[in-house]
């Protein structure tokens, strides 16, 4: 009997469901093959829905990928000076786009990400605490691999409902326990601490050790933006309960209408530390936040 067949796959693999690519998606693909026009809204895919890529980004990528273009004055003249300067800056750091970088990503790019965070939050940021991955999903997987110990343990992860199914799929794949906490639709899909208390108690009573809470802000698929007070309350609740906060903040540029302005968990962490330096630090709060160029003004999902 061949080794690679359904009956011999690991049970956790068989139990994993990633509905972004599930039955509805497959049915839509079949209709598309039959000539129907289908607009895929199952994933955030801006360019797939017509968002135009930023010219500057593509120019820099082109020059870094093919630096010989810079050696031809006629070709180089077709690129703006700022794109050429940025490409040369990256080439000086990377040497070649085909070369390995530090396992955490280019030091230069990580420094630039730290500068972005400083501008966003008005707080100093340590570039050596930043990791670059091939998309936020890869970073989420790394985080959950650190938290879910697998066979012999019953490690639980609090995940919002509704959620982006990456979290339920990876938790199942890694032999963890997903503990879904419901968002309050009547309260703009907010998170109520009494709901978290109840789910934490229920999951613990069932024999699991809850190790982290996932918060998706702005929400996916719900689209809400949590006010700063709510973000601080969640950060404080997690610290009190010794849970790592996994803050999915990839839609932070996509806040519309009269929704509260985006407030990061990093700023909430620092705000709580400023209010009670000794007490909050004594709780040993832990935070991992995720961002991506696949959403917002970049929308670069495929690069």
List keywords for this structure.
303 residues, alpha/beta, five-stranded parallel β-sheet
Kindly summarize this structure in a few lines:
With 303 residues, the protein is α/β, with parallel strands linked by helices.
The percentage helix is: 40-55%
Major sheet details: 5 strands, parallel
For the biggest β-sheet, the strand order reads 2-1-3-4-5
Overall pLDDT? 94
Describe this structure in words.
The chain is α/β, with parallel strands linked by helices. It contains twelve helices and five strands. It has a five-stranded parallel sheet with strand order 2-1-3-4-5, sandwiched between helices. Helix 10 (228-240) links the parallel strand 3 (209-216) and strand 4 (244-248). The radius of gyration is 22 Å and the shape is globular. The mean pLDDT is 94.
Layout of SSEs?
Blueprint: H1 11-15, H2 23-33, H3 55-65, H4 73-76, H5 81-94, H6 107-121, H7 136-147, E1 155-161, H8 166-173, E2 177-182, H9 193-205, E3 209-216, H10 228-240, E4 244-248, H11 265-275, H12 277-282, E5 286-290
Parallel strand pairs: 1-2, 1-3, 3-4, 4-5
Helix pairs in contact: 3-5, 7-8, 10-11
């Amino acid at each position: 009997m061949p080794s690679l067949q359904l009956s011999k796959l690991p049970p956790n693999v068989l139990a994993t469901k990633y509905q972004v690519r599930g039955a509805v998606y497959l049915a839509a693909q079949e209709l598309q093959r039959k000539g129907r026009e289908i607009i895929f809204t199952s994933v955030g895919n801006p360019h797939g829905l017509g968002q135009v890529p930023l010219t500057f980004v593509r120019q820099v990528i082109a020059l870094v990928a093919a630096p010989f273009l810079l050696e031809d004055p006629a070709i180089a003249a077709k690129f703006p000076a700022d794109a050429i300067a940025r490409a040369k800056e990256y080439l000086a750091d990377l040497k070649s786009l085909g070369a390995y970088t530090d396992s955490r990503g280019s030091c230069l790019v990580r420094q630039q990400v730290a500068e972005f965070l400083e501008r966003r939050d008005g707080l100093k940021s340590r570039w050596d605490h930043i990791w670059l991955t091939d998309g936020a999903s890869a970073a989420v997987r790394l985080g959950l691999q650190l938290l879910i110990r697998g066979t012999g343990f019953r490690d639980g992860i609090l995940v919002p409902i509704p959620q982006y199914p990456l979290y339920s799929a990876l938790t199942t794949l890694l032999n963890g326990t997903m503990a879904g906490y419901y968002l309050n639709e009547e309260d703009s899909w907010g998170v109520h601490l009494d709901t978290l208390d109840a789910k934490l108690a229920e999951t613990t009573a069932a024999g699991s050790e809850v190790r982290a809470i996932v918060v998706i802000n702005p929400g996916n698929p719900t689209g809400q933006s949590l006010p700063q007070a709510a973000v601080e309350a969640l950060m404080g609740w997690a610290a009190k309960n010794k849970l790592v906060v996994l803050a999915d903040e990839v839609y932070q540029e996509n806040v519309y209408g009269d929704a509260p302005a985006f407030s990061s968990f990093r700023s909430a962490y620092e705000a709580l530390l400023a209010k009670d330096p000794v007490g909050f630090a004594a709780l040993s709060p832990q935070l991992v936040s995720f961002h991506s160029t696949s959403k917002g003004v970049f929308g670069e999902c495929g690069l």
